[in-house]
Predict the structure.
Amino acid sequence: MVHFVGAGPGAPDLITLRGMRCLQEADVIVYAGSLVNPQLLEYKKPDCEVYDSARMTLEEVLEVLLRAEAEEKTSVRLHTGDPCLYGAIREQMDVLDREGIAYDYCPGVSSFCGAASALNLEYTLPDVSQSVVITRMAGRTSVPEREEIASFAAHHATMVIFLSTGMLRKLSERLTAGGYEPETPAAIVYKATWEDERSFVCTVGTLAETAERNQITKTALIIVGDVVSHGSYRRSDLYNPAFTTEFREGKSEK
Ligand code: SAH
């Protein structure tokens, strides 16, 4: 059995209870050492074999997982945040499917949630934005052309941009080309929920200089939109005394 497990954004107590149990029971762990907090390995059994996938190819990872399976061992493939975002899990699952090997998937707290917690943000403020665009700049990995940053920026929704800290000048330029004003609030969150977490509130126009001044070059998320400065939002309907829900009768104002 192979368990794909989300490690959470960094703090070792932000893995789920289910994920922690998978680590405690694993005979083999393959973890993404570039971003997963190594403190999570303290949950493992003393004789558990550990591999850091940062130094491995897909083929090498699969070789470890297939060998473990042949030896009737339980393995954990530990991915940062939640594996569903930029996790490269499908290519592993396809091989396991072909080999008839059973696997399951334990979700994790994605770093975009960790970044919101770092800044006490609500990404979906009424009347400000009700959508979150999770995306990245094209780098060495391409992005489909129809998903170009400017096309998303045109919506003025909240944006969380992964994997793009090294391209902030270009990012600002594309956000502005799409219709965000350079003064639009933005933030850089470095190593959300880690002990050395740092966060900076700036604007779309000052992303690159803010990162340079603070020497942030990787492991960061960029958040863009008026929710960063809390905008001029409207209070929720759900908790409004006059609003009736399935659980509560609204009281009209007298
Ligand atoms: N599956 C992961 C994302 C993996 S892609 C998740 O759900 O979070 C790797 C990128 O995620 C990094 O380049 C960075 O942009 C972002 N990232 C991962 N962990 C982070 C953290 N703790 N703080 C800020 N950004 C992080």
